[in-house]
């Protein structure tokens, strides 16, 4: 998979340049999911950067790595939905790269084939302790490295036509790739559930189009980590997420709607002001709805 190899090398290079410049960074998105066992070839590479380090990150990649920062005000990457016009009704499942969280800065690489995105931490991972330049400890509750041997091994299962094999590309070799910080499988699962709850709460508060589309994205991404997808690594989530995660995995035979627990999680987190700067818990009223 040439695209996968290039994406991994790009992520490794980005982490190297940022680490050398003492800019904290974390790989997120589809490529990070691939490393924890949900293999999907993507030409997007997404990094999360502490908000106050974003200018330094952009400058480092532009000046040291010579990556061209996109400054086109009409660039398609500035839209959360990349598909418009007569194809706009195509299925998100069939076009998973269609919806994305718009980055603070992005770079077109390899003649535009690959996109490197830099996202502020407050937009995607506000709940995570502010990222630092230190390597995560073995017992870190949230983070690990792309070279960690605990990651699932290289998948050798043949793929169905048009479908990538289950399992990840395997831990990255430290001899070939600079280590990249990622969320561990449990924290990645929690991150996607939290983002889903945030955007469902935004919908409930009257924010429609962007919130609706992003909620579909987080639903799709989290579904790639379900038990039924055959990922070979366990996702141990914290107690407050367990009921929702069990529901989505249909582990409770008595649950008539697998999204009920997610709806309850959304309401609890919104009222507790845990859904980040886009959701004001003091103005949130739990709606009588279904996800």
Structure report:
- The protein is α+β, with helices and mostly antiparallel strands.
- It has 2 domains: 2-183, no CATH class; 186-283, no CATH class.
- It has 8 helices and 6 strands.
- It has helices at 2-20, 29-35, 54-63, 121-124, 185-204, 209-223, 239-248, 260-271, and strands at residues 26-28, 44-49, 105-109, 114-120, 143-145, 181-183.
- Strand 3 and strand 4 (114-120) form a beta hairpin.
- The model is unreliable at 156-168 (pLDDT under 50).
Radius of gyration: 19 Å
Helical element count? Answer: 8
How many strands, which pairing sense, and closed or not: the largest β-sheet? 4 strands, mixed
Counting helices, strands and paired strands, the structural category is alpha+beta
Distance between the termini: 36 Å
Strand content: 5-15%
Mean pLDDT: 85
What strand order characterises the main sheet? 1-2-4-3
Helix-strand string = HEHEHEEHEEHHHH
Could you name the ranges where pLDDT drops below 50 across 5 or more consecutive residues?
A: 156-168
- Estimate the helix proportion, in percent: 25-40%
Q: What's the number of structural domains?
A: 2
- Give the oligomeric state of the chains in this entry, treating copies of one chain as homo and distinct chains as hetero: single chain
By DSSP, the count of extended strands is 6
Shape summary: globular
Concise description?
By secondary structure, this protein is an alpha+beta fold.
């Amino acid at each position: 998979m040439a695209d996968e190899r290039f994406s991994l090398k790009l992520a490794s290079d980005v982490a190297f340049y940022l680490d050398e410049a003492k800019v904290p960074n974390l790989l997120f998105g589809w490529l990070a999911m691939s490393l924890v066992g949900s293999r999907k070839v993507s030409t997007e590479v997404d990094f999360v950067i502490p908000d106050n380090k974003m200018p330094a990150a952009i400058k480092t990649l532009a000046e040291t790595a010579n990556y061209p920062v996109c400054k086109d005000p009409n660039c398609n990457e500035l839209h959360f939905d990349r598909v418009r016009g007569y194809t706009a009704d195509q299925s998100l499942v069939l076009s998973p790269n269609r919806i994305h969280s718009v980055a603070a800065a992005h770079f077109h690489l390899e003649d535009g084939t690959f996109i490197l995105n830099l996202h502020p931490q407050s937009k995607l991972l506000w709940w995570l302790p502010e990222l630092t330049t230190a390597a995560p400890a073995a017992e870190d509750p949230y983070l690990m490295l792309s070279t960690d041997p605990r990651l699932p091994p290289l998948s050798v299962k043949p793929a169905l036509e048009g479908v990538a094999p289950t399992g990840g590309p395997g831990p990255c070799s430290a001899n070939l790739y600079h280590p990249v910080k990622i969320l561990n499988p449990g924290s990645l699962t929690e991150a996607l559930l939290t983002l889903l709850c945030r955007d469902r709460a935004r919908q409930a508060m009257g924010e429609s189009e962007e919130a609706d589309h992003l909620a579909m994205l987080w639903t799709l991404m989290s579904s790639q980590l379900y038990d039924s997808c055959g990922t070979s690594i366990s996702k141990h989530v914290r107690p407050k997420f367990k009921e929702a995660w069990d529901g989505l995995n249909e582990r409770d035979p008595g649950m008539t709607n697998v999204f009920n627990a997610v709806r309850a999680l959304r309401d609890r987190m919104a009222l507790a002001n845990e859904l980040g700067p886009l959701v004001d818990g003091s103005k949130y009223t739990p709606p009588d709805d279904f996800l």
